[in-house]
Every structure is written in structure tokens, then in C-alpha cells.
Write a structure and sequence with these properties.
Radius of gyration: 18 Å
Structural class: mainly alpha
Shape: extended
Strand order of the largest sheet: 1-2
Order of helices and strands: HHHEEH
Strand content: 5-15%
């Protein structure tokens, strides 16, 4: 397995999780609302949505961008599972796309 990140938690993080657990509201509670409001304010938009994972966030981003069953999606050969729903329409940048497209992918990301 290829590790993606190393989690760094401190006592404040742990206390925050315990607070949410003790509240009995594990989803859509005041902490989630606060996160959404602060996130929206930070990036200068009216609304933000907290989701359960990075995969869910990427999936919603593709939907928000209008990526659908008619879209063609260029993916790197190693990709997170959130983008796999587009797999039937995907072109792997490692094998089926000209070098120019691979270079553009690197520049845009």
C-alpha cells in the first residue's frame, strides 16, 4: 500500500472529537455548520458543504462541474476511488493520451 498521509493529532483535536461524540449529534450538528460557515467565509462564497471524505468531495466537485456520462475525463494512471465512477469514460494519461496532454495535466494540477 502507498501511504497518502500521516495523521498529526494533538490533545485539542482529541478533545474536539470527544465533545462531538458526547453531544450525540455525529452528523449535521453545530460543529459541521460552523465548519461550513467558516469554510465559505474563508474562500469568499455564500455556501460550503462538509462531506464525509475527500472522495465524496471530489465526487461532488465533478458533479458541480457538470461532468456526466457524456463527458470525457483524463485521469492519471494512479487515481483515488472518487474518480473511478467516471472510469467508463476515462482516458488514462499514462497510456492513451499524447505526451502533450500529459504535460498539460501536470501544468494544470
Amino acid at each position: 500500500m502507498i501511504p497518502h498521509s500521516k495523521v498529526a493529532l494533538d490533545e485539542e483535536d482529541i478533545a474536539g472529537v470527544i465533545g462531538v461524540l458526547r453531544s450525540g449529534q455525529l452528523a449535521q450538528g453545530r460543529v459541521v455548520l460552523s465548519l461550513e460557515e467558516k469554510s465559505a467565509s474563508l474562500i469568499g462564497v455564500k455556501h460550503a458543504a462538509a462531506v464525509s471524505s475527500g472522495s465524496a468531495a471530489l465526487h461532488l466537485s465533478l458533479i458541480a462541474l457538470g461532468i456526466d456520462e457524456k463527458s470525457e475525463v483524463i485521469l492519471p494512471s494512479y487515481v483515488c476511488t472518487a474518480l473511478k465512477w467516471a472510469e467508463d469514460r476515462a482516458i488514462s494519461s499514462s497510456s492513451n493520451v499524447r505526451s502533450y496532454c500529459q504535460a498539460m495535466y501536470v501544468l494544470l494540477c
